[in-house]
Design brief:
six-stranded antiparallel beta sheet; 2 domains; four-stranded antiparallel beta sheet; single chain; elongated; alpha+beta; Nuclear Transport Factor 2, Chain: A
Length: 308
Amino acid sequence: MKKHLMMILMLLLSISLLGCMSQGNQAGLNPGEGERQEEERTDESNEAAVADLVEAFGTKLQTVSLLAPEDVLEKSMQENYAEFVSPALLEKWLKDPLHAPGRMTSSPWPERIDIQNIEKLSEAAYKVQGAIIEVTSAEEGIGAKRSITLTVEKAEEHWLITDVNMGDYAESGTAIVYKNTQYGFSFSLPESWQGYSIVNDKWEGLGLGAGEEGKVIETGSIISIRHPAWTAEEPRQDIPIMIFTQDQWKSLQEEKFHIGAAPMGPKQLAQNNQYVFALPARYNYAFPTGYEEVEEILESNPLQAEEL
């Protein structure tokens, strides 16, 4: 009996000791687990702060014109960039503004930075990869995307951008092309022109020779590409394309007739074996909304002629 009692007491003692050891082990693990969770919360907080900084900086890009006079540019950078970037980086940009992010043209212009990835480099440094989104004067019209990589570091209690590298512009995956098979040409447009319309008109050539002066002796087509945001109440700049036969163009160059009152003639854009495609003189004389965007489109050699 005593032996059985002794065995029962030993068994209860063993169970008690195992329980104490288990509690001790759990107590030893909990501090480590708590530290890991605290580190995760800190990382999340830091990433959120870094993201907020980069996104806020992105909204300021449109306010800094990189082609402004030196004194104006310096003031603009100080006012708009100083709270986001380190003094050393700001000084670097002031010495070489063409390698700084900012606004180069009236349209498209940088609207924001879209963040694609945030990588932790150390407890006080992160690398942010994203894209500068440039938009046109049309509402929500994306004109271009340019890759950008930023280094963000913590200085005392504040995060600052300490380095910026800008990459290439992304190729548009959804190019918009107007194709005219009647005259044999195509015209490339930005994505913001999705939903464009075509307006047909005609030009008239007035004679300059004896007995023909002031009389209409030649006519041809004008094909205008119209922006989808155009309305009668708020018209926008069209892209007008004048169509000449090869003989008509030759006669125009020989001043056998003229078009309109402008002292200069139409500007040739391209030609194929049958037609010459030209831009009317002073087509944007009234400076309607969107004329700057059309000028930039035309600078990219968007019209390509095809043999018929």
